[in-house]
């Protein structure tokens, strides 16, 4: 019987070999090649979520917390209303470290609003798919190209930095998409955003799309990805875009946004830190608090099963899991819950098994001999009581029971 264990203390060592493209013991280190930035769109995309509307004070607080967390860019739309314009002006004047992008349509009067807010960055957008050109703008490709270049020239004439979003790029005719992206890039636009506006892409499709655009533009122009979650693929598509050469992902707190939203800040931040290993400057311990803040301001309850920030993200129930976690949490946890502002929880009930029953007896200060634990486990199962007790497992409790053995 093979009883030896890995010489590597890191339980995630072999998984990272596969993630890096090598399973033979030699990591190719293809993931951690460059810094990947985060743009948070909670104040723009997030307010497109049905029923969500922040006050000016709430927008300022959200922006301040996102900046302290460490996001690279924050976008907000001053053209929506007077209070959005007021919030944009106040956030820009706050002197945050993050770039503040004034989100505008690709028309001159919107750019003028951004200029009135003293914006240094604008984020403008125009549809490029035939279906949106026809049904939304009621123009053809040639006019769309002309309008895009006119607003680009206007932006650069006023000394602004800019990101240009090619809306519905994933459904645009490839040659037209490449031509407009190239022209925008050659005109000096700093960033081009490639969105999957309706969430239709597979990861391999998003990889191909971003690769195609990247090969068509000036190497000095950087690429964002903005992926919608209609089919649950937003995060996977965003990461595929990064693998293809994009260097910024758009997120919102808890992933709120139009329809099913976009990738969640918590998931992207932890993945870039832990798996891509391209960030070490994010205050991950704020993630749970950011989620709570958005839940408070929107009334949208964070699902218990939400990765990283959900109440069940570090909750353990099955008996065999409890036994392993209480001896070494890394058996079922790839990150320390405290590092992301969350807490470990254990649940005792009909699935607790002998080990779980023994732990419960120990917590209650009772003897934990084999027969007593077995009887309690059997009783919990036969009575079908479901979950009997749920509790946080803090350091003192771990120390109390981590070496417990059932005799």
Short description:
This protein has helices spanning 13-19, 56-69, 82-93, 108-116, 130-137, 141-157, 174-186, 203-216, 234-243, 265-275, 287-298, 319-327, 353-363, 370-383, 395-401; strands spanning 37-40, 73-76, 99-105, 121-127, 161-167, 191-196, 222-227, 248-251, 315-316, 345-349, 387-392. The chain has 407 residues and is of the alpha/beta class.
Molecular structure report:
This protein has 407 residues and is of the alpha/beta class. It has 2 domains: 262 residues, TIM Barrel; 87 residues, no CATH class. 41% of the residues lie in helices and 14% in strands. The chain contains 15 helices and 11 strands. The strands form 2 sheets. An 8-stranded parallel beta barrel has the order 1-2-3-4-5-6-7-8, surrounded by 9 helices. A 3-stranded mixed sheet has the order 9-10-11. Helix 12 links the parallel strand 9 and strand 10. Helix 6 runs parallel beside helix 7 and helix 12 packs across helix 13. The protein is elongated, with a radius of gyration of 25 Å. About 1% of the residues have low confidence.
Keywords for this entry:
407 residues; 8-stranded parallel barrel; TIM Barrel; 3-stranded mixed sheet; 41% helix; 11 strands; alpha/beta
Helix content: 40-55%
- Count of the separate structural domains: 2
Task: State the CATH topology of the largest domain.
Answer: TIM Barrel
What would the principal axes of the Cα set say about the shape?
elongated
From the alpha carbons, calculate the radius of gyration and give it in angstroms: 25 Å
Name given to the CATH homologous superfamily of the largest domain: Aldolase class I
> What is the mean predicted local confidence, pLDDT?
88
Report the β-strand fraction as a percent range.
Answer: 5-15%
Instruction: Give the biggest sheet.
Output: 8 strands, parallel, barrel
**Unreliable residue stretches:** 25-29
Query: In angstroms, what separates the terminal alpha carbons?
Result: 26 Å
- CATH class designation of the largest domain: Alpha Beta
Number of continuous helical runs: 15
Reading side by side through the largest sheet, how are the strands ordered?
Answer: 1-2-3-4-5-6-7-8
Question: How many strands in all?
Answer: 11
Please trace the helix and strand order, writing H or E for each element.
HEHEHEHEHHEHEHEHEHHEHEHHEH
The assembly state of the depicted protein chains is: single chain
Would you identify the CATH architecture of the largest domain?
Alpha-Beta Barrel
The assigned structural class equals alpha/beta
